[in-house]
Each structure stands twice: as C-alpha cells, then as structure tokens.
Amino acid sequence: MTKKPKILIIEDSPVIVGMISFMLTREGYEPLVVEDGGKAMEFLQGQVVPDAVILDILLPYVDGFELLAEMRRIPAWKEVPVIMLTAKSQESDVIRGLDLGANDYLVKPLRPMELAARLRRYFRPAS
Prior knowledge:
Layout: E1 6-10, H1 14-26, E2 30-34, H2 37-44, E3 52-55, H3 64-73, E4 82-86, H4 91-100, E5 104-107, H5 112-120
Parallel strand pairs: 1-2, 1-3, 3-4, 4-5
C-alpha cells in the first residue's frame, strides 16, 4: 500500500476545513489542519513537511502571505506545492501570492472538485 500524501490545510473557518478535509480524505489524501497563522508558523519549524499546502490569506496572528514567504525561505519547504484558497480576489493579491511562490490561486467560494483537480496535478506520475 502506498502512503497517502499529506496535505496541510491552513484555514480558520471550521466549515471550510470540514469540506476540504472531507474531500481530501475521499480523494485518498491525509489532511493535516492548522487553524491560525501563529500555529502555522510553529508547524513550519517542526519535523513534518507535507506533500502540499492549501493556504488561506486572511488568518489570525500571521497572514497567508507572510506564511508563504516563510515557507519559501525554509529549504525543506521550497518545493512544496502551495494552493492559495482565499476570499481576496483583487488582481494585486493574486499577483502577490504568485510572486511569493504560490503554485496556484483559487478564490472562494470553495469549489471542492476544482480544488481536487488542481491538487491532483501535483501527484501525477511523471511520464
């Protein structure tokens, strides 16, 4: 049996966390959840490096932009795919997220099947 890819969800809305966790589990991933930016900063210093991250921008304590910048400074996290999932839809926010190193940027409301399809791209076997 192959190991399930670990997907870190950094999101403060319990409803959205529930929907994403359900979808990830159904798709064969192992969801890990951190509900605020402060705890996410602590997570980045730990031993567990996920296979991908779903990151909100509007978080308590530390925002998603700061977290993304920190991820890209840590060698073990540099290549981890990050999908930003946020209500911030301004072009300047999208550009900032992508320029900081996000691999993808989705605007809420959450569309679980689209998120699943975008996530699958990072786990396809190389041809």
